[in-house]
Specification:
alpha/beta, seven-stranded mixed β-sheet, 17% strand
Length: 435
Amino acid sequence: MAAYQPLHQHSHKPSSSYGSVSLGLRTVLAWLLSALLGLALLHLLRCSHCGAREKAMVSPLLQYITSTYSQGTCMCLLSTYGCDYSEGQWVRAPGHARRYNGTECNVKGSENCIRNGRPDTGYLDWRWQPSADGCHLPSFDAASFLAAVRGKHVAFLGDSMARNQAESLVCLLGASFPYRMVYQDPEPGTRKFWRWAFPSHDVTVSVYWAPFLARATGKPENYSEPYSSVYLDALAERWSADADTMDVAVVSTGHWFWNPSVYYNGSVVVGTHRLSDLNHTEIGVFSPYREAIRMTIRRLVSSAARTVVVATFSPAHFEKEWDDPATCARRLPYREGEREVDAMHAELRSIVREETAAAAVAMIDGGRGATTVEVLDVTKLAAMRPDGHPGVYMKRDPFARGVPERLQSDCLHFCLPGPVDTFNEILLQLLTKRR
């Protein structure tokens, strides 16, 4: 296997930040506001079938912009933008997720649930059904995906959920098309940076592990360290250095922001989280998360035309202590209304929507129509799948010697194959809806 070589970078030079609000942007916003009542009336007349959430006659401008530019809403209002996949329910579909062998595509061992002896496989027999009338999420089609990204570099940036989705994509594609590993971390067992090539379509898929997206030291480099030091004025070096090579960038993060951390702006501490003994201001989760998402989008839209896809938070399901063998032992998805999205997870979801909406409006104002920013809203569908995690089957044959009182469980990542494959079904629709 060859040593790591950076991909050829695009020749475009970075343009200015989208952070300031110009006169042109105010003009656009004024036009949108004046047109909103007319659009709402048209929506009422033509889209009465689209669901309660879409029937509000006058919504805040930000909500309108978010639904317009980030994810699409009702099919009849924005038919070229497709369905809204963010709301729905899991319906039984025998065999739907039985599309590849996790061992053959070399998924991380702790997520290879079938190989590890998980006796039930019913979690593979469900598909996501969007709520909106007339909406259906098609099954993943490897040929369509590769055709949509022919000659391109698809990069996943973020924490281990980004890696979970990247490995899912490689497996879904690899079940139909040949591929090869072109780079992996030299340290055994490390999956912080991997790259695959699909020569039939000249497609490259990469994963960049950067749990805060920003530059971070301490625990991200050495798990034995007590906390993370995160620099909110600087991006993680590896992915940001390669950013200009990315044609499709899928951003997914969130879980590390709950851990003890010290946040910096340059050399100045701006706050800490869960480190009260350091005698600094408690900064919480939302502010650093927003800044990391904002800074990442700003970098990705500042240069060559590309598609930027920002995933919303995918909740974990630790319903008991993390080392309780029954902490995520549920064997069925939640039914609609049985479990609501947690308020804090909903706030993280809103932050992604707001930041992508702001970026989309700024790009319109700046005339950068060739770059698109999308929301991959997976919060609801992931929250309803407590059955899809490895649980104790993150280890091989965990009960071979009986049932221990304490046993580590993974209730965060999804089994491969498993519910995370649905993330890539939606990603395919986002990539093809504008073609």
